[in-house]
Amino acid sequence: MLNLKINEKGLKNNIERAKAQNIILPTIEQQMHPEKIPQKILDKLTNVGLWDIDPVNLFRITWKNEQKESGGLFHGPNYIVLPPELTGVKCRIICMIGKWFPTGCHKVGASYGCLIPEFVTGKFDTNFHKAVWPSTGNYCRGGAFDSALLGVYSVAILPEGMSRERFDWLKNVASEVIATPGTESNVKEIFDKTHELKATRDDVLILNQFEQMGNYMWHYNVTGNAIADAFEEIKGENGNLAGMAFTSGSAGTMASGDRLKELYPNAKLAVGEALQCPTLLDNGFGAHRIEGIGDKHVPWIHNVKNTDMVIDIDDEDSQKILRLFNEPIGREYLKEQGVDPELVDMLGYFGISGIANMLCCIKMAKYYELTENDVLATVMTDSSVMYGSRIKELQDEDGEYTHEMAALDYHEHILGEKADNMLELRYTDRKRIHNLKYYTWVEQQGKTSDELNALWYDEANTWGALRKERAKIDDLINEFNEATGLLKNL
């Protein structure tokens, strides 16, 4: 599934670039288990800020960073547990925290998973290629950051209507920024721009998160096992991992669900999307405001056959909760309702897609009538730091936030969530969603119908083979580090 054939010329150039810029690569295993990082690397990290453009921060691409802006090392996975007092459902919900990745978002890991197989095989040649990161926001930020750490020229592509914070950040990190028409729902326009670049520039390598199997590989290994670690920490005597829910986006995090279903075979895996664009639910389309989840297509890397449920979230719920979680009056109201003040103070860890993920879990808990022994899991991709301008827009729209508004938002948009706009997937439902890939990937993006059918009918040589690639990639990373000599000479 991953082409690991070596290009000797490109590999030689990348080794020389790494030597010149002191770049040591972490293995995927080290991102899963930071305790395996060499002590001399740890010593270097104690003097480096979390977001610094320093190659040693490649080793901080993990869910297990110490929660410090500078000099932090590692501990167990970063997560919070949402109790019934906040969610109104009996089961507990594990939410993995993306804020403590470099860039404040776990997409920096997905982009590493996409670029590093090309880098250590030499198919991406740093003396020639530019890395193109098409995205609705966070993935291109992660790609630009990884590129900067690896000494690679980066081209970030995202819709012009995404939050101002994303563009402000990219100006200082990406080599080149291209804004495409539209907003969150205009993924095709991003793809169109990549086609234009490929037709007019021979030096670009398109790292499309929606089709790059390195995205799947990274989340299957790193995110899936981190969630398992978190569950084992909190499960208690009778804890049961009942399921996982993730908004679709690139479908990278859905791969973590594949790993968790191997470890906990009774767990259900749900995919979320915006109700305003119900592509998975009923082949629908439309625009929406849940930034970071994409729509109007099914990602190539989504293993639909292993998905149990579709959950649609009203984007109005996500906007109201964004304000409830970030306005001082909203937080005070939640404390009055008996929510732990320490938890309330951490609600800024939720970005808009993280809020949607939480709502997916609440709906899933109600649908399956989950109990106190059950646990659901999801991720907070980024934090509210990326949405200050959106909060300001809501303030301008609705005026000063009041106690009454907080009460309404909490009771209507969290406690009032219903088990509606959901579909538990039969075999034929899954096949319908899988078949939607044809219209994007075969008709538009150059895949073949044989490749599409293989993803459905040939598990062993597609998804099954991909899950075994991590060891091969780690071997190539170790060989790369050996060739530079930087690690052994620390």
Please, could you describe this protein's structure?
With 490 residues, this protein is an alpha/beta fold. Helices cover 46% and strands 12% of the residues. It is built from 22 helices and eleven strands. The protein has a seven-stranded mixed β-sheet with strand order 1-2-10-7-8-9-11, sandwiched between helices. The chain has a four-stranded parallel β-sheet with strand order 5-4-3-6, sandwiched between helices. Helix 5 (107-121) crosses helix 6.
In a few lines, what is going on in this structure?
By secondary structure, the chain is an alpha/beta fold.
Report, as a whole number of angstroms, the end-to-end distance: 35 Å
Report the portion of residues in β strands. 5-15%
Number of strands: 11
- The strand order across the widest sheet is 1-2-10-7-8-9-11
For the report, how would you describe the main beta sheet? 7 strands, mixed
Q: Share of helix among residues? A: 40-55%
State the shape: globular
**Which segments are poorly predicted (pLDDT under 50) over 5 or more consecutive residues?**
none
Q: What's the oligomerization state? A: single chain
Gyration radius, rounded: 21 Å
pLDDT averaged over residues:
95
SS-based class: alpha/beta
Number of helices: 22
Defining traits:
490 residues; alpha/beta; seven-stranded mixed β-sheet; four-stranded parallel β-sheet; 46% helix; 12% strand; globular
Q: What is the topology?
A:
Elements: H1 8-21, H2 28-32, H3 39-45, E1 79-82, H4 84-87, E2 92-97, H5 107-121, E3 130-134, H6 138-150, E4 153-159, H7 164-171, E5 176-180, H8 187-200, E6 204-206, H9 213-234, E7 240-247, H10 254-263, E8 268-274, H11 279-282, E9 309-313, H12 315-326, H13 328-336, H14 341-344, H15 352-367, E10 374-380, H16 388-398, H17 403-413, E11 422-424, H18 427-435, H19 437-442, H20 449-457, H21 463-466, H22 469-484
Parallel strand pairs: 2-10, 3-4, 3-6, 4-5, 7-8, 7-10, 8-9
Antiparallel strand pairs: 1-2, 9-11
